[in-house]
Every structure is written in structure tokens, then in C-alpha cells.
Amino acid sequence: MLLDEPTNHLDIQHQIELLRLICDISLTSIIAIHDLNHAAMFCDHLVVLDRGRIVAQGTPEAVLTEALLREVFRVEARVVTSPHHGRPHIHYLR
User: How many domains does the chain have?
Assistant: First the structure.
């Protein structure tokens, strides 16, 4: 299944419900999504593009690093393991 920003314009409850539903379907899904915390929570494999080129791919733990966030997205952030779901969680800094 191919999905392009399926959570766009949804409130947070429906974003989470939709991503859970997609995960529960026994089908490979390719999802374009810009919310990195949602990607970390729900995706098994990430591919990060920068100007149309693949710059990183792998598990959320391997891909979502502070260095990558700084270099590709030009933001300062801290990445920690969530005690709630065990996946990376990004805290964006001001």
C-alpha cells in the first residue's frame, strides 16, 4: 500500500488511530510522512531523503540521530528512547 501524508489535516486522535490501523494490516506499506516521531513510533524501516537523494535508511533507532536531524533538517534536537513504547522520541530544542 502506498500512502502520501495520510495523517495530513487530521487531529491527533485520528492520526494515531490511522497509523495503528495501517500497522495492524498484514501488508507492506510505504508511507511518506513528515512527522518524525510518528515515523519512529509506527515504522519498522525509514528512508530519509535530502534534495531527492537517500541520505539514510534503516531502523528508526539507526536513522534518527541528532547528527542527521542537524544535517538534513537543520534543527537541534535530542533523541531519547521513549519509556512508553521503546522507540526513539525526538525532543526539538528552541
Answer: 1
